[in-house]
Amino acid sequence: MTGFATPRAPENKAADYVPTSGDVVEAYDAFLRSFETYRETNDERLAEIENRISGDPLTEEKLARIDAVLDRQKATLDEIVLKARRPALGGEHERLTLGTRERKAAFETYIRRGDASALVRLDAKALSAGTGADGGCTVPDETEREIGKRLIAASPIRAISGLRTISAATYKKPFATTGFASGWAGETDARTQTTTPTLAELEFPAMELYAMPAATQTLLDDSAVDLDQWIAQEVESAFAAQESAAFVSGDGNKKPTGFLHGTKVAEADWAWGSLGYIATGVSGDFAEEAPADELIELVYALKAGYRQNARFVLNRRTQATLRKLKDVDGRYIWMPPTEAGGDATLLGFPVTEAEDMPDIGANSFALAFGDFRRGYLVVDRLGVRVLRDPYSAKPYVLFYTTKRVGGGVQDFDAIKLLKFGVS
């Protein structure tokens, strides 16, 4: 197959490898070349369908192969850009205060040798609750911030949602479901009494999320290894994977409540406390005629105030289906990102790829559209705790790392869904 090429993977596969701008440009150019080939092949497929009633199986197979290559290239490009954007923990020591450097050194002593005495002394001096009765300690503040930054980069729903940091176990937020009454009046006119708004209280409890990276004693004895950075790298993917699944479909039982878990009703029957949806009219598929019409209807089901910052959320298999669709003027409704690290667009709105979204199927809600910054809230409780365990998996040392995270819909009018069903 010609016309496209898989981007060359960097030869250096070390965890601390930082891609160059040349790596990013090369991967992005390869992705664009593949998309051009994809469009040409899909145009050929559509012409065959128009002329022969059905498409050539060889063309269908070729399109499927190119589609798979596009997915691999996009994943490679995203990984390269993510690595290039990851904040480095090393080299920060000169900018740290004396107290911060002391805590960082004490934390490193605990991680390397299991000696928590320096941390206990510092916490007692600062009247801090850094070390709990069940053992372990909280990571230094700068390490916690870097873990948070890495999660924003790696967790797709966290990256587009509202964020709130709390020190309590639960975040409670009052919300006016009917709005506040207002109006115009002259300077000396009498004001009519306004109605009392209806308030609802939303609760977002922070649940415990954990990861348990393992280290060899050789790694712990190596003074060249930045253990803050190692812990951040090790828990990043584990935390991001668990968060992403919970933010989409979590049931709220010892985990955040996902935006797809709650009540879903047809947009015509929408009420506060549920998410409205538009149906495609076909079970498990788009309508055969003008399939993009349901997407346009979904876009305009969202109020203008939300629409200006809205985006589509879907998985890569749904995105592969949308790549083939055209509008009534014959233009593709899906377009690749205009720059490396940017978002693809659908009908001009950015696309967030979340693998935990369901596939297109009978009555599935495989596509969401909305202003997630206003619609979904992620709650982080302060403190990431590490408990060193040298006994459970000898000769390895386990680091039981926990953080508390919550999440849920905070504005039910800011997110709309597309249902692949008759009604």
Descriptive tags:
8-stranded mixed sheet, 12 helices, globular, 6-stranded mixed sheet, about 425 residues, alpha+beta, Major capsid protein gp5 fold, about 20% strand
In terms of quaternary structure, the protein is single chain
CATH fold title of the largest domain:
Major capsid protein gp5 fold
Number of structurally distinct domains: 2
> From the helix content, strand content and strand pairing, which structural class follows?
alpha+beta
In terms of DSSP E residues, the strand content is: 15-25%
Largest sheet: 8 strands, mixed
What is the second-level CATH architecture of the largest domain?
2-Layer Sandwich
Walk me through what this model shows.
The protein has 423 residues and is of the alpha+beta class. It has two domains: 21-85; 89-177 and 197-315 and 354-423, Major capsid protein gp5 (Major capsid protein gp5 fold, 2-Layer Sandwich), CATH 3.30.2400. The chain is 37% helix and 22% strand. It contains twelve helices and 16 strands. The protein has helices at 21-52, 57-85, 98-113, 117-125, 141-154, 156-160, 217-221, 227-249, 292-301, 304-307, 316-322, 372-375; strands at 137-138, 162-166, 170-176, 199-205, 207-211, 214-215, 263-266, 274-279, 311-314, 334-335, 345-346, 349-353, 364-370, 376-389, 397-409, 415-420. The chain has an eight-stranded mixed beta sheet with strand order 7-8-16-13-9-12-11-10. Strand 11 (345-346) and strand 12 (349-353) form a beta hairpin. Helix 5 packs across helix 8 (227-249). The longest helix has 32 residues, at 21-52. The two termini are 42 Å apart. 32% of the residues are buried. Mean pLDDT is 84; it is low at 1-15, 89-94 and 129-133.
